[in-house]
Amino acid sequence: MLGVSFYKERIISNPKGDIFHIIKKSSDGFKGFGEAYFTTIHQGVVKGWKRHFKMTLNLAVPVGEVEFVVYNETEFETYTLSASNYGRITIEPNLWVAFRGIGEDNLIINIANISHSPDEAENRELEEIDYEW
Amino acid sequence: MLGVSFYKERIISNPKGDIFHIIKKSSDGFKGFGEAYFTTIHQGVVKGWKRHFKMTLNLAVPVGEVEFVVYNETEFETYTLSASNYGRITIEPNLWVAFRGIGEDNLIINIANISHSPDEAENRELEEIDYEW
Question: Which residue(s) pair with A39 in the sheet?
Fold first, then answer.
């Protein structure tokens, strides 16, 4: 789908604890830095739908497993991220996004090009977009 | 200690899963964006010592608990971060850093002002700096 990309990111094994790349200034999909924050999502629960007008999301899941659904008013695309299917998805503005927690504990990081502002996003109730969860 | 600061960061409670602020472009201690990566550290294990010449670290711990020790060749300072003692520490360059995993699983994020490069850091063995772990 136009505006959504998955990038495999490197995991560096270390006997004391692994290192997981997220994003560099030079990475494809990097659109500047505005804010970094974590979101958690409980098992079986869905957050969404939300559409940003300006924010490009760069998402990775280091703990648990999360299913992201992106909707462009015509079609849906799903991406399932976890530590074992590790990588980053870049989601450009103007796409509807919802996500569901699959693991017991689920952690998402977003490296966003702008700081959070309620003015640049709109929400729809889960039922307002016809997707079979 | 000069060059090290702790900032309390906000946790936004949400019945579907909480949100944890890490850092914004406008935050104190933000020195530009070069790279974001995760480090894990196993329980009871210490990684260190490492000193960066150019990198400013911005560290937060969303999972587990981690004890960070900073050394400026004169004195030591310790910071223990976790989801329950949540916040961010900014560590400027030219300070020795080591850290120990306390929780069962421990996750650290670093929002760094430059991308990783082995040229701008030096390492010492754990025993080379006399600290009682």
Answer: A108, B19
